[in-house]
Amino acid sequence: TSILCTDNDAGGTITGLTIGNTYYIRMYTYYTTGPTVQNVCLKTPPPMTYVSSTTTQSSTGSVTAGTINQQIIRVAVVVNGDLNPLSVTQLNLNTNGSTNPATDISAARVFYTGTSTTFSTTTQFGTTVNTPNGSYIVSGSQVLTGGVSNTTNYFWVVYDLPCNATATNVLDGECTGVTVGALQVPSITAPTGNRT
Prior knowledge:
This protein has 196 residues and is an all-beta fold. It has one helix spanning 101-104; strands at residues 49-57, 70-81, 87-94, 107-112, 124-130, 135-143, 147-160, 174-180, 182-184.
């Protein structure tokens, strides 16, 4: 399988190679006379480092009692590099801003969508927290996706609403900490907006 074909001194950079795998390089020239010079530069990719994190309000649309996996906030974790990948192991969350979490929230979950900004319930991070009211922690182990430039990974906090949730009450949340090796505080912990 060819992963790069370059022509006429265009050069090229290949990333995402796996240490320990064997790769073959084939070089040729158009010319039948005279010397040609080909340069191949191999270097170790940079180790993954934590860059930043922030929290946004992923949706402000209205919600309906008796529904599940309603988006509340999205936590973005930015890393750089891909050698020795880092993992998120804990999110420190709370229900601040919600009118009455004790009766309006039956469960909270976190989902991970990698570098995709599209919400999906395919990959749950940690376990479900039943009846969150105030501060709570979701622990798990999610290896982050990196690259040669800053790469953003997305975690989504969602709530389940019981059938007797009050329609006019506000639902909201905050992320006050992300553990990526060490505890990191997002630049924004309580984003503007909420859901009703």
